[in-house]
Amino acid sequence: MNQDLRREREAASFNPELLTHVLDGSPENTRRRREIENLILNDPDFQHEDLNFLTRSQRYEVAVRKSANMVKKMRDFGIADPEEIMWFKKVHLVNFVEPVSLNYSMFIPTLLNQGTTAQQEKWLLSSKGLQIIGTYAQTEMGHGTHLRGLETTATYDPETQEFILNSPTVTSIKWWPGGLGKTSNHAIVLAQLITKGKCYGLHAFIVPIREIGTHKPLPGITVGDIGPKFGYDEMDNGYLKMDNYRIPRENMLMKYAQVKPDGTYVKPVSNKLTYGTMVFVRSFLVGEAARSLSKACTIAIRYSAVRHQSEIKPGEPEPQILDFQTQQYKLFPLLATAYAFQFVGAYMKETYHRINEDIGHGDLSELPELHALTAGLKAFTSWTTNAAIEACRMACGGHGYSHCSGLPNIYVTFTPTCTFEGENTVMMLQTARFLMKSYDQVHSGKLVCGMVSYLNDLPTQRIQPQQVAVWPTVVDIDSPDSLTEAYKLRAARLVEIAAKNLQNEVIRRESKEVAWNLTSVDLVRASEAHCHYVVVKLFSEKLLQIQDKSIHTVLRNLCLLYCLYGISQKAGDFLQGSIMTESQITQVNQRIKELLTAVRPDAVALVDAFDFKDVTLGSVLGRYDGNVYEHLFEWAKKSPLNKAEYLLLHSWRSQPSHTVNG
Amino acid sequence: MNQDLRREREAASFNPELLTHVLDGSPENTRRRREIENLILNDPDFQHEDLNFLTRSQRYEVAVRKSANMVKKMRDFGIADPEEIMWFKKVHLVNFVEPVSLNYSMFIPTLLNQGTTAQQEKWLLSSKGLQIIGTYAQTEMGHGTHLRGLETTATYDPETQEFILNSPTVTSIKWWPGGLGKTSNHAIVLAQLITKGKCYGLHAFIVPIREIGTHKPLPGITVGDIGPKFGYDEMDNGYLKMDNYRIPRENMLMKYAQVKPDGTYVKPVSNKLTYGTMVFVRSFLVGEAARSLSKACTIAIRYSAVRHQSEIKPGEPEPQILDFQTQQYKLFPLLATAYAFQFVGAYMKETYHRINEDIGHGDLSELPELHALTAGLKAFTSWTTNAAIEACRMACGGHGYSHCSGLPNIYVTFTPTCTFEGENTVMMLQTARFLMKSYDQVHSGKLVCGMVSYLNDLPTQRIQPQQVAVWPTVVDIDSPDSLTEAYKLRAARLVEIAAKNLQNEVIRRESKEVAWNLTSVDLVRASEAHCHYVVVKLFSEKLLQIQDKSIHTVLRNLCLLYCLYGISQKAGDFLQGSIMTESQITQVNQRIKELLTAVRPDAVALVDAFDFKDVTLGSVLGRYDGNVYEHLFEWAKKSPLNKAEYLLLHSWRSQPSHTVNG
Asked: Model confidence over B466-525: pLDDT tens digits?
């Protein structure tokens, strides 16, 4: 154990194990999670080279091997529960992307959801056993967000009872699907269905792309890797171009919509259920944001406890950099955010399961709000986390730029979350649409429920400055509940401003859609304030469930820090509408500094509670055993001068002209 | 020419060539810059593979070859002026790092500044000719910011008249110097000088590290690459460990301090001049921030003009994404920032040259302010640019994550600027120290001059809320001058708050240093506000020099956008102290939306004016010829499935157990 970290741990005011149980949901969950993690950590088959020292191609090869191993081991270990699979993968992969993941996360689920029984019989077993490796090809070079704009066509030919697949333009080439570039031999392709001369919109087709056995692209198929990316080296995101490529009619997934042998189109009864998958994935991503941020905080805070630098008082030993107020101000609000997002992630999971059960009973009433909430929270948490990981990295000084910190990999693996599964700005505008609908509902005299119920209390005509006194202004900056009220008032005010600006634009412009676009900056701001309120509210409510007094105290400080930091960053929003006074904002800034001091002694224990065994695998700076600098020196020795480099340098030295051409 | 871009250019309200002349300083500068750029762009020796598709080792090899070529070509082309060398390198290297750069940027200048004539005679010619390749080894594994903490020792042995160099601890190993890992055979090493049993602090020594001819590390030297990093693949940042390694007495750079043969230490007369180098490098980095941000804006705005997606009105063709207000709100304030920083960069260069001349005449009076200003502006512009490059990248949707955008490389190449040459928080605190000194000076009845002269106008006791009415509150949000006043008042207020909080802490705490640490968050905030004011002021003043009316109009809009966006982001600062009213902030938000609409028709011309010929070399999305998607498809084809991958996948397919072990 590192001496600095040992001292930090001994000084903590609480037992981190108890907090780990809170984060996992129960002591039993913690036990089982560790059991699964240890299966992997103790298994020699799961050791592999440090990926940072490999080429992209080598990283891909390691990933393919690991993917194959993983499938086998999960079977061996009897791990089948989705949550347990997630724990297993998270430790197994250590911030690592696997080429066959889409077979399990998209190909098989889509087959199950949209395939007929006969189709499942035909493809399910072999895709589960990886004879077939499938992926899901939706995005095209020219279209991601706007699904209706996808250009790939599947034209039915009744004579042969086949669909003819085409990529009619450069922009229609499928682009980005994971595992498509090299690994997969099948893809579920989304294409515009054309039959009897009419286009019926997007449908899903099972498309063989490579020959089983030889793994060569099939005739009519052009497939390959889209090239190097910012991270995701192990993943072969790919392209797919189809030229008059024929597949049997039976390859269209026909559980809902159908094309009869003669080409007659039978439309689906309902498509509400596909809605559920999006909601599930986005609510899962909120938890991923929490996890990535927690990991970044663990590394940055541990390193800040170990790193000694400069001096506070001249002549005294160099302090831990965690003792500098500026370092605390960089990291502790992020630590508070990590906890906030952990609780939001847990809430999203519970809510999803609850509403999913309701849906099972035919009750879809809560789905619109859940959809709006997951969209907004996915954007809010991923934007925040994205910037926060980089802040953690830059808080580690020079070593943050080295892969030894593990932070660059956390960043590049996380950052696509801001764009995939719904681009964040688009997500915020979806939430805004729900907020505007709710606002209109209140204005037409109906009450709204759920997280937006604060709109019921809106006094009319309130945004005129002279009438702001209507607000209750007694915010107690030491009460999470009172601060939640302040965030609620801010959200209500920004929703109202967006709604009124939208109304004004509607009056001025020729179309509602143009008005919407010209108000979209206000709409995004309103959604952000709404999401921020939800996070603050959930964190405050979580405190009520904490029994242990020592845990309650530290979490309450983090909750206050999260709330007050947000107010300080967005002080204008809280001053406007007189939610808070100028002198309160001054007090907020003072109180934040006091909270930094209060959190300081528990900072290391607070990241220990996240219980990342695997930090040590990906990060030298996050290690807690021994001397971090000795580990760093060992790590660096893995990239000696190789022979080609030596010969080049040697030849250069011996040439007086200093021209070294290849 | 791409059709969308052609249409954008035809619709512009001004001639971008005229604006390019403004940015370059004169039409003659533009002409000469292009002449140099064309030398490279037309030279087949400078074409090379796309680095994105190479391994780290291959990238390093290309870089070494290019470095060698560059030295030769600059000689051939007769390029010797420092500014011209910079242009040459910038185009030549295209966001590319060269292993021998430290030989020219640090080794030779240090030899010239600190070496005696005899030392220059001995090493200068061969280092200019690259027989000797030198680097500059200062940072150690355990110390970057805190120079006095460096642990490497150089102990003088009068018997042999040698220095004995040692790395006594793991943390004392030199870490990070560019070109040290593989390329260099000499290093200027900073070490604690010990002679006659006494330590005299840091001094510079010329240390041979590899044998000329064989390029093997010399006995007593352990040297190598520190391993993979976030970017900088081409650079062999290295480590250096010395064990009782002896160098002759003559290898200590002795222009100022000296060690006599008997070991007597002769201290330097003055060390003010080393100050100058830091100031120069930091002021240069302000220009680099401007350049990197301008490039990122060029790519993101061109791509947003070419990319069509979604719909504003149903049934109409897909709009350019640049027509979405949210996209404009993401990009145009950054474009305004890029222009702001361009002008700040030009100002810094002029000021540096002016003050350098003064220093030449023995006048050091302006050096403290220049030092404070460069420190703060280096931090302010690099933090802003760092976040802005990522915002540009994420504004490009999925393609922003691909190296085809060029943006990940711009980011990873730029981001170290936040840490090197003075860690940003440390820089901000240096500026704060100057601000506090100036504040104290005013309070003791003396006037201050230069950028801080606003402190002369501070009414005493003004931060009490009840007295805020003292401020003039008539801010005209359509006047850059009036907005500059508002920023000035904000800076003055935050400097005063920091000063008062510091005073309070000094009274409460046992030491000034502890008080400083416990106020450092306020101090950084004050420095940021000061720097923000300086940027706004310089941009506003630049407008006065613009003759052409059409150019003046677009730059004025950008200046307003920069000022108002900053106010909107930091509204709390402007509401507090009643610098602005709530209804003014509401107007600011409205005015920003109008400015987005005003900038929209000129957005492409505004990035064209940056005149980056080289964008097309590093970025597919930034290209302006033909169809960007066709270029993208060609680009992706450069990474086909290789043989090892194929064999692995093929073997996997034929094994029923699906276990592929390496």
From this structure: 444 445 568 999 999 999 999 999 999 999 999 999 999 999 988 999 999 999 999 999
Half-sphere exposure (CA, 13 Å, Cβ side) for A499? Answer: 23
Nearest chain A CA: its distance from B308 CA (Å): 8
Q: Which percentage of chain A shows pLDDT scores above 70?
A: 93
In a 10 Å sphere around its CB, with 0-12 CB exposed, 13-18 middle and 19+ buried, how is residue B468 labelled? Answer: middle
Would you call A362 exposed, middle or buried from its count of C-beta atoms within 10 A (0-12, 13-18, 19+)?
Answer: exposed
- B150 and B287 share one domain: no
- CA–CA gap between residue B249 and residue B228 (Å, rounded): 36
As a whole number of angstroms, the distance between CA B238 and CA B450 comes to 42
Give how far Cα B630 sits from Cα of A239, B504, B634, Å: 13, 64, 6
Q: Are residues B527 and B621 in the same domain?
A: yes
Range of the domain at B607: 1-42+280-448+478-642
A268, A297, A312 - which closes a domain: A268
Helix (H) or strand (E) holding B639: none
Kindly state whether A419 is in contact with chain B, defined as any CB-CB distance less than 8 angstroms: yes
| Contact by Cβ (8 Å): A236, A61 | no
pLDDT in tens, B572-623: 999 998 999 999 999 999 999 999 999 999 999 999 999 987 666 689 999 9
Contact (Cβ atoms closer than 8 angstroms) between residue B143 and residue B163: no
Distance from CA of B643 to the nearest CA of A (A): 10
Q: Which residues of B are catalytic?
A: 421
Centroid of chain to Cα A364? 26
User: Would you say residue B69 lies in a domain?
Assistant: no
If asked whether residues A580 and A602 sit together in one domain, one would say: yes
A398 is in an annotated binding site: no
Q: What's this model's pTM, rounded to 2 decimal places?
A: 0.96
Give yes or no: residues B259 and B324 share one domain. Answer: no
B234, B268, B302: which is the final residue of a domain? Answer: B268
- DSSP secondary structure letters along B78-109: T--SHHHHHHHHHHHHSS---TTHHIIIIIHH
**pLDDT value for A304:** 98
**Range A579-590 average pLDDT:** 96
pLDDT at A574 over 80: yes
Tokens (6 digits) for A189? 């392709």
Q: Are residues B264 and B287 in the same domain?
A: no
Instruction: Report residue A101's pLDDT band, with 50, 70 and 90 as the boundaries.
Output: confident
Residues B149 and B72 sit within 8 Å (Cβ to Cβ): no
Tell me, what's the ipTM? 0.95
Residue recorded with tokens 């610098």 = B579
Distance CA B436, CA B505 (A): 14
Shared domain for A191 and A302, answered yes or no, is no
Classify residue A496: in a domain, yes or no: yes
Query: Using CA atoms, how far apart are residues A531 and A380, in angstroms rounded to an integer?
Result: 7
Residue with tokens 């002549």: A315
Distance from C-alpha of A490 to C-alpha of A469, rounded to nearest angstrom? 14
Domain assignment present for residue B637? The answer is yes
Chain B residues whose CB is inside 8 A of the A57 CB are: 642, 644-645
Q: Do A649 and B183 touch (CB under 8 A)?
A: yes
Distance, in Å, from the CA atom of B461 to the CA atom of A538, rounded to the nearest integer, reads 41
Q: Is A129 on the interface with B (CB under 8 A)?
A: yes
**Are B182 and B174 spatial neighbours (Cβ–Cβ below 8 Å)?**
no
Q: What letter would DSSP give residue A104?
A: I
| A521 phi, psi to nearest 5 deg | -60, -45
- The CATH number given to whatever domain includes residue A367 is 1.20.140.10
Quick check: is B90 in a domain?
Answer: no
Which one-letter amino acid corresponds to residue B87? W
Nearest CA distance, B490 vs chain A (angstrom): 14
As for how many domains chain A has, the answer is 2
* A583/A497 same-domain check: yes
**In terms of domains, do B213 and B340 share one?**
no
CATH number of the structural domain spanning residue A110: 2.40.110.10
